[in-house]
Amino acid sequence: MFSGQRFYIQQAGSVSKQQIRLLSAALSKAGAIVIDKIVNDQTPIDYFIADSKFSQFDCLKFSSSNNLTADSPVLAGCQFISVDWPVACLKAHQVLPFNEFKLRSLESVSESKSAEPDEPTSKRRRSAAVVVEEADVDSSATASTSLASESASQSLRLPPRVGAWICAQSSLSTPAVSEVACPANADIVRILGQMADTYGSTNDKWRVYSYKKAAQAVKRCSKPIDSRASAQSLPGVGSRLADKIWEIAQSGRLAKLDCLSSDETVAALKLFTSLWGAGPVTAQAWVAQGLRSLDDLASRPDLLNRQQKIGLKHYDDFLNRMPRSEAGEIESVVAEAVHQLGNGFIVQACGSYRRGRPDCGDVDVLVTHPDGRSHAGLLTRLVTHLERTGFLTDHLVSCEENGDHKKYLGVCRLPLSTNNSGQSERRARRLDIIVVPYNEYACSLVYFTGSEHFCRSLRHLAKRLGMSLNEHALYEGVIRRGAVKVNPGRPVNTPDEASVFQHLGVPYRPPNERDH
DNA sequence: ATACAGACAAG
DNA sequence: CTTGTC
DNA sequence: GTAT
Ligand SMILES: O=c1ccn([C@H]2C[C@H](O)[C@@H](COP(=O)(O)OP(=O)(O)OP(=O)(O)O)O2)c(=O)[nH]1
Ligand SMILES: [Mg+2]
């Protein structure tokens, strides 16, 4: 019946391993060749079979076969079809037409917008109610940034109105932490966030970027979203997300998310990527090998690297956020150790702690010395010291011994805590330490204080101004070809955090206003 | 077509 | 170089 | 996924 036809069956959704075995056997008997693994440079397959609830896109995205794209040679001329088709064919003892069984194609995307040329709602030029997204380049290019670049070629590009950047706004000025400007939009924000999380366990960071950005835009939107068009008028919301947002607004649900959430391989991907040291690629590989649970991982130490073993050991502790008081205790332990190793060191907890968050995922400690020299070689001594006292229990990343290492990522545990019902061991906590030369203090502080989003926004702004910002310094006179640096530029003198903001032309924001 | 931040460690 | 993390 |  299927003589010589090459099939691949995707295990996902309602298609279980067991079912694949049965179906494969039946198909083979009917003359088909069932491929169990798609490799890029093999004979192209004829049929990609999967649960009917998936689209072609989902198949590629969540497939355990890595590096598959729509135009991979193996997929040339391949049909994406629901499992229902071969099942029906076998039952009917004949090859049925598969028109009715095709999975949703990749190209339902085709220009749904005939972009009205002079549409006044075209993203920029909105009513002033919401002017809050970055890279929303307004034509009124003011903001002749005080000390900013003199690079002639760069100044030809319109500098964005700095006020439109995230890093120029206080995180307090917009909806309070985990709230929404308009309660009616809460579902939308929540669901877009869940979509971002879900895609977070795939390799598609730009999709995640967009979902997050759209969620932010909706969060800041002060009126209920009452039409598809009003959704698409939001910055960062295009045609596809507008559809999804509108679906949520009407029904309170998103079929796409319901579908993905109910899939066990997607759940496994999320579980695995929540393990420290495992990202989307590794998670995908484990799922492809049939692993689904932490117990499965524990039974296969050969598949785990050193860091992942530590991650597994402390799986629950690492997912748990500590009260800021505990972060304070940890900072004190580190500070005391540093001060035993020398005088005059600056020791400062940054990250979410410095931003004033009530709870912290880890403790990020920055160490420097005003004399500009004593920082050298400190980190090794510090780690050794803290290890001896039993405070540090595991090392995730410590630059071995090239003398001038700067970063340490590890695990610590505070001494027994005594409460009314006796003594109890405390949780293991993630501890990050950086030791930096004093001339890099300001930029390190900006970097290490975050938030991540705030940092990225600041760096993006710097780039648009012909500058460059990293944890070491702010550089001016940077020349790029596209995104590639041609000339690295020269470091700007930045004695303190405020000077970094100044050079970028944005108002200074204290740490608690950087919690974006 | 290209950018969406930029760096560093592990292996 | 890829992967993962800050 | 979106914007330029
Ligand atoms: O991709 C990243 C991740 C982090 N950081 C900076 C900002 C961040 O604030 C700091 C510390 O990282 P961490 O992951 O500890 O974030 P946090 O802001 O402290 O949050 P949490 O409470 O989860 O630790 O490092 C970045 O610049 N880029
Ligand atoms: Mg932190």
UniProtKB/TrEMBL annotation:
GO CC term, one of those recorded: nucleus
Record SUPFAM superfamilies: BRCT domain, DNA polymerase beta, N-terminal domain-like, Nucleotidyltransferase, PsbU/PolX domain-like
Gene Ontology biological-process entries: DNA replication; double-strand break repair via nonhomologous end joining
Reactions catalysed, as given in the entry: DNA(n) + a 2'-deoxyribonucleoside 5'-triphosphate = DNA(n+1) + diphosphate
Gene3D superfamilies membership: 5' to 3' exonuclease, C-terminal subdomain (1.10.150.20), Beta Polymerase, domain 2 (3.30.460.10), BRCT domain (3.40.50.10190), DNA polymerase beta, N-terminal domain-like (1.10.150.110), DNA polymerase, thumb domain (3.30.210.10)
Subcellular location: Nucleus
Cofactor: Mn(2+)
Key word Transport present: no
EC number of the protein: 2.7.7.7
Family named by the database record: Belongs to the DNA polymerase type-X family.
Function of the molecule: DNA polymerase that functions in several pathways of DNA repair. Involved in base excision repair (BER) responsible for repair of lesions that give rise to abasic (AP) sites in DNA. Also contributes to DNA double-strand break repair by non-homologous end joining and homologous recombination. Has both template-dependent and template-independent (terminal transferase) DNA polymerase activities. Has also a 5'-deoxyribose-5-phosphate lyase (dRP lyase) activity.
Record PANTHER family: DNA POLYMERASE LAMBDA, DNA POLYMERASE TYPE-X FAMILY MEMBER
Protein name: DNA polymerase
Organism (species): Macrostomum lignano
